[in-house]
Design goal:
Elements (H helix, E strand, L loop, with lengths): L1 H26 L2 E2 L6 E2 L3 H7 L5 H21 L1
Antiparallel strand pairs: 1-2
């Protein structure tokens, strides 16, 4: 059980990292207001700019829907 949990957590982390990387590519670099230099967008800024459910939440809700479907299918 613990091995499965660690694999799932590792996959969740990889999904978050790839989503953040894609969002950084979409929004591009940001110019710092104080120094005027270009810098990478921080994770919190990404969340402010793109407020959507996390990829993990979307996947887990799909799993719950599938389990509910299978439970209904088993009753009939």
């Amino acid at each position: 059980m613990c091995e499965t949990c660690s694999v799932i957590l590792r996959d969740e982390h990889r999904l978050r990292v790839s989503k953040n990387r894609a969002l950084r590519n979409i929004f591009g670099p940001n110019r710092d207001k104080v120094t005027g230099e270009w810098r990478r967008i921080y994770k919190e800024e990404l969340y402010d700019m793109f407020s959507s459910p996390t990829i993990i939440r979307v996947i887990k809700s799909g799993i719950v829907r599938m389990v509910e479907h299978v439970a209904r299918f088993g009753r009939g």
